[in-house]
C-alpha cells in the first residue's frame, strides 16, 4: 500500500539539542594510569588469537598500531567491570577484538537488558548509548565520542511528535530506535529495521504514524495493509545509494547477489535480491554463502562479515557513516581510563522512553 502522507520538519523549526556530557562518572570512578601502548613480543603473542580473527581484512602492517590498544582496553575493561556493545558498523578491530556483544540496534537493545557489569561502553552512536542508559538506569553508560550522532535522530524532536499527535489524533506512533530519548518518550512503541513490520501490525490499528525514516516507512507500507503516515527523515549513508549503480554492477555480473538495507530509497530496494536489517543481511550471507555479494549498507559491515567468511567475495560500493567512524580504539581507551563521556537521560523522560522500548523488546513473535 502506498504511503498515506509524508510530513516533515516544517511542522516545527526547533532543532534538537544534544545533552551536555555529565561528569558524575569522573567523580565516582578514579582515573586509571595510562598504559604504555608499546608494540613488543609480549603484546604480539597475547593478541595473536585476536589478530587471527581479522587477518583477512586488516593488513599485518596495521596490527602493531591496533594491538597495544586492544590489549590495554581488554585489561582495563576487567578492572572497571565494563562491557563494550558494538554495532555492526564498527570497524573490525573494535567489532572482533574488544567488543563483548555485537549486533544491530535490536540485538544491542536486547543485550543491554542482560548486562551484568557496572559500566557499559557503547561503540556506536549516541541514540544507541541513550537506549542502553534507558534500559540500565543504575549503570554508568559511556560513549567514547558524544558527537557520534545520526541524521535520522536529528531529523525529529519530541515537540514534532506532539504536533503530529495533534494533527492525527488517536493514531498510534511507531518510532524507529534511531531517535533521541525525548522522541521515544513521546511514542507508543519503538521498532528496529528487523521488526518494523511486526511492530506496525501488532498494534491492530488501520493507520499508524511511522517516524522518522521515510524510506523504511515506504518499505513497511509496501508489505502491509496498515496505512502509514511517514516523516521526512532519512539516513545520510543509505540515501546516497542509487538503483542505477546497482544496475551497473548487475550488468557486469548477472549472478551477483545484491542485499540492501531498508533505509535505502525504493529504487535501490527494487534492484536488490534481498532486503533486511543488518542482522538479517549477515544471516543471509552466512546461510547462503553467495560467491559474490554486494551489501548495500555501511562499509564496515562488509569488512566484519568478510573477516568471518573469507571465501565470499564482497563487491563494493559502500558508504561510510561519519558518525560511526568517530568511535576509535584510542577513544574507547580514553573513555575507560577517564570515565568519559557519560550519557545521562532525564529520569522522567527515561521512564516514558523505557515503556516504548520494552514494549518492542517483549513483543511476542
Ligand atoms: S548509518 Fe545512517 S542511520 Fe546509522 S547511524 Fe549513520 S546516519 Fe544514522
Compose a concise summary of this entry.
The protein has helices spanning about 25-30, 40-55, 65-80, 90-95, 105-110, 125-135, 160-165, 180-185, 195-200, 215-220, 245-250, 265-270, 280-290, 300-310, 330-340, 345-360, and strands at about 5, 80-85, 100-105, 120-125, 140, 175, 190, 205-210, 225-230, 255-260, 275, 290-295, 315. The chain is of the alpha/beta class and about 375 residues long.
- Number of distinct beta strands: 13
Give the helix tally. Answer: 16
Mean pLDDT: 93
Q: Estimate the strand proportion.
A: 5-15%
User: What is the N-to-C succession of helices and strands?
Assistant: EHHHEHEHEHEHEHEHEHEHEHEHEHEHH
How would you explain this protein's 3D organization?
A 5-stranded parallel beta sheet has the order 1-9-8-6-7, sandwiched between helices. A 4-stranded parallel beta sheet has the order 3-2-4-5, sandwiched between helices. A 4-stranded parallel beta sheet has the order 11-10-12-13. The protein contains 16 helices and 13 strands. About 40% of the residues lie in helices and about 15% in strands. The chain starts with a strand and ends with a helix. It has helices spanning about 25-30, 40-55, 65-80, 90-95, 105-110, 125-135, 160-165, 180-185, 195-200, 215-220, 245-250, 265-270, 280-290, 300-310, 330-340, 345-360; strands at about 5, 80-85, 100-105, 120-125, 140, 175, 190, 205-210, 225-230, 255-260, 275, 290-295, 315. The mean pLDDT is about 95. With about 375 residues, the chain is an alpha/beta fold. The structure holds iron/sulfur cluster (SF4). Iron/sulfur cluster binds near residues 125, 178, 235, 298 and 321.
Amino acid at each position: 500500500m502506498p504511503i498515506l502522507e509524508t510530513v516533515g520538519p516544517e511542522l516545527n523549526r526547533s532543532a534538537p539539542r544534544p545533552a551536555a556530557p555529565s561528569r558524575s562518572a569522573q567523580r565516582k570512578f578514579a582515573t586509571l594510569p595510562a598504559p604504555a601502548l608499546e608494540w613488543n613480543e609480549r603484546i604480539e603473542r597475547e593478541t595473536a588469537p585476536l589478530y587471527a580473527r581479522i587477518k583477512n581484512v586488516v593488513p599485518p602492517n596495521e596490527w602493531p598500531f591496533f594491538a597495544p590498544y586492544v590489549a590495554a582496553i581488554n585489561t582495563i575493561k576487567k578492572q572497571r567491570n565494563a562491557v563494550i556493545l558494538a554495532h555492526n558498523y564498527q570497524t573490525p578491530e573494535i567489532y572482533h577484538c574488544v567488543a563483548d556483544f555485537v549486533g544491530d540496534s535490536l540485538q544491542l537493545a536486547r543485550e543491554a537488558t542482560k548486562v551484568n557489569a557496572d559500566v557499559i561502553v557503547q561503540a556506536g552512536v549516541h541514540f544507541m548509548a541513550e537506549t542502553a542508559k534507558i534500559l540500565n538506569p543504575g549503570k554508568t553508560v559511556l560513549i567514547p565520542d558524544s558527537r557520534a550522532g545520526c541524521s535520522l535522530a536529528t531529523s525529529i524532536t519530541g515537540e514534532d511528535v506532539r504536533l503530529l499527535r495533534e494533527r492525527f489524533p488517536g493514531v498510534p506512533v511507531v518510532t524507529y530506535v534511531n531517535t533521541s530519548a525525548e522522541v521515544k518518550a513521546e511514542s507508543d512503541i519503538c521498532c528496529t529495521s528487523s521488526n518494523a513490520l511486526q511492530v506496525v501490525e501488532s498494534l491492530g490499528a488501520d493507520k499508524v504514524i511511522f517516524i522518522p525514516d521515510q524510506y523504511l516507512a515506504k518499505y513497511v507500507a509496501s508489505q502491509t495493509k496498515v496505512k502509514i503516515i511517514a516523516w521526512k527523515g532519512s539516513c545520510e549513508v543509505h540515501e546516497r545509494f542509487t538503483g542505477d549503480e546497482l544496475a551497473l554492477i548487475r550488468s557486469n555480473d548477472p549472478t551477483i547477489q545484491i542485499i540492501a538495507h531498508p533505509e535505502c530509497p525504493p529504487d535501490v530496494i527494487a534492484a536488490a535480491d534481498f532486503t533486511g536489517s543488518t542482522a538479517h543481511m549477515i544471516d543471509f550471507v552466512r546461510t547462503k554463502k553467495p560467491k559474490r555479494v554486494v551489501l548495500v549498507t555501511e562499509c564496515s559491515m562488509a569488512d566484519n562479515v568478510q573477516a568471518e567468511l573469507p571465501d565470499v567475495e564482497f563487491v563494493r560500493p559502500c558508504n561510510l557513516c561519519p558518525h560511526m567512524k568517530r568511535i576509535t580504539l584510542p577513544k574507547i581507551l580514553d573513555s575507560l581510563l577517564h570515565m568519559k563521556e557519560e550519557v545521562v537521560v532525564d529520569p522522567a523522560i527515561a521512564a516514558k522512553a523505557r515503556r516504548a522500548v520494552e514494549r518492542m523488546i517483549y513483543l511476542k513473535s
